[in-house]
Design goal:
CATH architecture of the domain at 1-50: Single Sheet
Strand order of the largest sheet: 1-2-3
CATH class of the domain at 1-50: Mainly Beta
Strand content: 5-15%
Helix content: under 10%
CATH topology of the domain at 1-50: Rubrerythrin, domain 2
Structural class: mainly beta
Number of helices: 0
Radius of gyration: 25 Å
Distance between the termini: 79 Å
Length: 79
């Protein structure tokens, strides 16, 4: 049974000894780079669930402070 990416239908590279994908292992499509897992109910590869934002660490945003030495440019009048 060829293992195929559900998005691009490319065959997933795997160990030819394995008849079926392992349930607990994540696979990656080398074309579209999606992370895939095996769904036993449908016997197909499906896209792995994305991480929930609450589980991710919040990013710190760098703040920029304007330099007092640089003044805004003034518009000149045309003659």
């Amino acid at each position: 049974m060829p293992w195929r990416c559900p998005a691009c239908r490319t065959e997933i590279r795997h160990n030819p000894v394995d008849a079926r994908p392992r349930t607990n292992e994540a696979y990656r499509c080398h074309v579209c780079r999606l992370e895939l897992v095996f769904d036993e109910e449908s016997s197909k590869m499906v896209v792995a669930p994305f991480e929930i934002e609450g589980q991710l660490e919040p990013r710190t945003v760098a703040r920029t402070i304007p330099s007092p030495a640089i003044s805004p440019t003034k518009k000149r009048r045309r003659l």
